[in-house]
From TrEMBL:
<dbReference type="InterPro" id="IPR016169">
    <property type="entry name" value="FAD-bd_PCMH_sub2"/>
</dbReference>
<keyword id="KW-0133">Cell shape</keyword>
<dbReference type="GO" id="GO:0009252">
    <property type="term" value="P:peptidoglycan biosynthetic process"/>
</dbReference>
<keyword id="KW-0961">Cell wall biogenesis/degradation</keyword>
<protein>
    <recommendedName>
        <fullName>UDP-N-acetylenolpyruvoylglucosamine reductase</fullName>
        <ecNumber>1.3.1.98</ecNumber>
    </recommendedName>
</protein>
<dbReference type="Pfam" id="PF02873">
    <property type="entry name" value="MurB_C"/>
</dbReference>
<keyword id="KW-0963">Cytoplasm</keyword>
<dbReference type="GO" id="GO:0008360">
    <property type="term" value="P:regulation of cell shape"/>
</dbReference>
<dbReference type="InterPro" id="IPR036318">
    <property type="entry name" value="FAD-bd_PCMH-like_sf"/>
</dbReference>
<comment type="function">
    <text>Cell wall formation.</text>
</comment>
<feature type="domain" description="FAD-binding PCMH-type">
    <location>
        <begin position="18"/>
        <end position="200"/>
    </location>
</feature>
<keyword id="KW-0573">Peptidoglycan synthesis</keyword>
<dbReference type="InterPro" id="IPR016166">
    <property type="entry name" value="FAD-bd_PCMH"/>
</dbReference>
<dbReference type="InterPro" id="IPR036635">
    <property type="entry name" value="MurB_C_sf"/>
</dbReference>
<keyword id="KW-0560">Oxidoreductase</keyword>
<dbReference type="InterPro" id="IPR011601">
    <property type="entry name" value="MurB_C"/>
</dbReference>
<feature type="active site">
    <location>
        <position position="177"/>
    </location>
</feature>
Length: 334
């Protein structure tokens, strides 16, 4: 099969943020063979390569990307016959499903609901694809992607001869908003995964999904393009004890405590940004959302540089006030 790239593709139209210049080359891979062939051609051209999943947490440079964008577009969901054993109760009730990396999280959540399978309710309303969610170990409402992973398949493109790697959960290196795939910085392309979900009550599953979707609509600035949470929440263990002692909001025994489980005790990044007085601050067409200050929203044809300037402002002000260095959750394509 001949591999033909699309050329000069406007990434602004693909980006969830509606920000970014053109990609010199662009290719949607439908299967692993496509991936191997396109990597071979990319090496012949000696052009840089970037793997773009759902483009929901990637800040794309205004000048675009002078290389090849590969979008894994593996869209299949198959219910497996295999049943997993709960290691604690020894009961066999978890159902396996095999899912392509290009499947949207919304499609996956809808499939689980249709089959009365529980375990993905936390992802109700989550944008992006399964591949991106695995790479960044996406999470919300106390759940994380790692909670349902049985195994992950990826294509290792860091070697001379690309090869498929199959990893069980324990080998995926999942951490808070991270994984071995993220740490390998583009050296691997996730192709598919096997998830284990619990047989459940369809009505209760639907209620939980709807509750989470409604929360997002109520609390998040969904009316504007964004990349979701700009910064990671801050683990309580990383906060200076002196700061905790003088601020009653950090006291878990007080009713006003802002500590939440994510899935371990954290202080939301939004709290620090709000307390630093940055709600509603704008630079160019980008604004720190007054509704949820961990969202930097595109309100008026923002440029990547506008977002970068706001990110740096937030970091500087939060560090000045709290002696805390916020860590970014978003990725960059430059």
């Amino acid at each position: 099969m001949l591999i033909n790239f699309d050329k000069n593709v406007p990434l602004k139209q693909i980006s969830h943020y509606k920000i970014g210049g053109n990609a010199k080359y662009f290719f949607e891979a439908k299967n692993a063979d496509d991936l191997i062939k396109v990597i071979e051609k990319q090496r012949q051209l000696k052009t840089p390569v970037f793997i773009l999943a759902g483009a929901t947490n990637v800040l794309i440079d205004d000048h675009g990307f002078n290389g090849l964008i590969i979008k894994p577009d593996f869209k299949f969901i198959r219910k497996e016959n295999n049943v997993f054993v709960n290691p604690h109760t020894k009961q066999s009730y978890s159902v396996g499903i095999n899912v392509g990396a290009g499947v949207l999280m919304k499609e996956l959540v809808d499939f689980a609901l249709e089959k009365n399978l529980s375990g993905l309710e936390w992802a109700g309303g989550l944008p992006g694809t399964l591949g991106g969610a695995i790479r960044g170990n996406a999470g919300a409402f106390g759940g994380e992607m790692k909670d349902t992973i049985e195994k992950v398949m990826s294509l290792d493109i860091s070697q001379k001869n690309p090869k498929i790697i199959k990893r069980k959960f324990k080998d995926c290196g999942f951490q808070y908003r991270s994984s071995i795939f993220k740490k390998n910085k583009g050296g691997e392309i996730i192709t598919e995964a096997t998830l284990k979900l619990q047989k459940g009550d369809g009505k209760k599953i639907e209620e939980e999904i709807i509750k989470n979707i409604n929360y997002r609509l109520l609390k998040h600035p969904m009316e504007y393009p964004s990349l979701g949470s700009t910064f990671k929440n801050v683990p309580l263990t990383q906060i200076d004890s002196k700061i905790i002692s003088i601020n009653p909001c950090f006291n878990p025994h007080k009713s006003m405590s802002i500590i939440k489980n994510d899935p371990f005790p954290v202080i939301p990044a939004a709290y620090f940004i709000s307390e630093a007085g940055l709600k509603g601050i704008s630079i160019g067409g980008a604004m720190i959302s007054p509704k949820h200050p961990n969202f930097i929203v595109n309100i008026l044809d923002a440029k990547a540089k506008d977002v970068e300037n706001l990110i740096q402002l937030v970091k500087n002000e939060v560090k000045k006030k709290f002696k805390i260095e916020l860590q970014e959750e978003i990725e960059r394509l430059i």
